[in-house]
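Closing statement on the 3-phosphoglyceric acid sub-project.
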Amino acid sequence: MYRIHCMNNISTVGTDRLAEAGYAFTDDASAADAWLVRSANLHEIELPEGLLAVARAGAGVNNIPVERCAERGIVVFNTPGANANAVKELVICGMLLACRDVIGGAEWVHANSDDPEIAKKAEKAKKRFGGFELAGRRVGVIGLGAIGSEVADALIALGAEVMGYDPYLSINAAWALDRRIEHVTDLNQLLSACDFVTLHVPATPDTRGMISADAISRMRPGAVLLNFARDVLVDEQALAEALDDGKVARYVTDFANPASANMKNAIVLPHLGASTGEAEDNCAVMAVGQLRDYLENGNIANSVNYGRVDLGPLVQGARLALFHQNVQGVIGRVSQVVADSGLNIENMSNVSRGADAYTLIEVTGEVGEDVQASLAELPDVRRVRVICPAS
Ligand SMILES: NC(=O)c1ccc[n+]([C@@H]2O[C@H](COP(=O)([O-])OP(=O)(O)OC[C@H]3O[C@@H](n4cnc5c(N)ncnc54)[C@H](O)[C@@H]3O)[C@@H](O)[C@H]2O)c1
Ligand SMILES: O=C(O)[C@H](O)COP(=O)(O)O
């Protein structure tokens, strides 16, 4: 029986599936075989010896020590696209809030709610809260993955002109985009041409600070910046100055921190992008499904530190799951140990990602503890699991 520890609240639509399958939940993170997590910061937490996997019910994995996990043979999963619709809707909402002073108008009504003349006064006051329309404006979308592509398509439907920038866009993702989206290969071209710029890239060493003082200086005067990706993408000091002097008209962000919360002309939300029932259920179901497939079958889908492996469900025999360095000779040595143990290899898959590799071998025959020990002792092998079919 596998033990799961939840680092955050995870939708019961997902966790119930684990309970129904006989999994146990533990409050003790160090005793768990796997962790389910949303945004809890795992960088400072010790990774227990027995931890096999971390499943992030969501997209961003900058809260997880992905490389350290890979070195230990701990598979990290995320749930690509499972919360994209929720974020897209909030981004469009953020853009509309920047177009018109909806918040100011609603606050005015609240402040005047006891005034019997409110209806008449509202007609006079409303000119303070007017604005402009999104249709016809040019919006730059940085990052055209699950969220960025949905935002770009929605903006086209709303009548905006859209420029997209994503140097790593896959051909399939490019085909899926509305053909009216102008694909630019120069970020500066997008920054200088757009009325709105919206960020949809992961937080990585490459993207940190990508909206630098220089990038801000290239933006159109009076442009609006939206950040529903991560706060570290933006040089917040430079942005605060640009908001003060009006170079940037509005900053709409999902990341409240001491800097953003005090910015002039900013609309700051408490990380609400994925906080809909639908998105939470989707993410939990996907995370749990991937976790089960790995724990019970050794298969890996949507991992951010190991490649995809799919030998289907394990029905007979057993599987040997090996994490090892991606170097010459490992597979030969592993096959020799398996053969010497009298096991027959029925099926096998090997994938590598950078320095790390994963090999899943389906065997028939009795897998003794000595086989696992012999495999674990091989050079360059980090971890060995023996997986048997559920009885
Ligand atoms: N506010 C929220 O609640 C919320 C919810 C989900 C995701 N997010 C954030 O949004 C990010 C994107 O989510 P997603 O689901 O679209 O991820 P995704 O992986 O589907 O898309 C990310 C895209 O960014 C592109 N990219 C990477 N580096 C780039 C660069 N330097 N310049 C331009 N493009 C680059 C990738 O090629 C990819 O297409 C997540 O990593 C997370 O940080 C926030
Ligand atoms: O990367 C994500 O998926 C989002 O930032 C959502 O984070 P949350 O699950 O903590 O709401």
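The chain is about 35% helix and 20% strand. With this model delivered, the sub-project is considered complete and its resources will be redirected to Aim 3.
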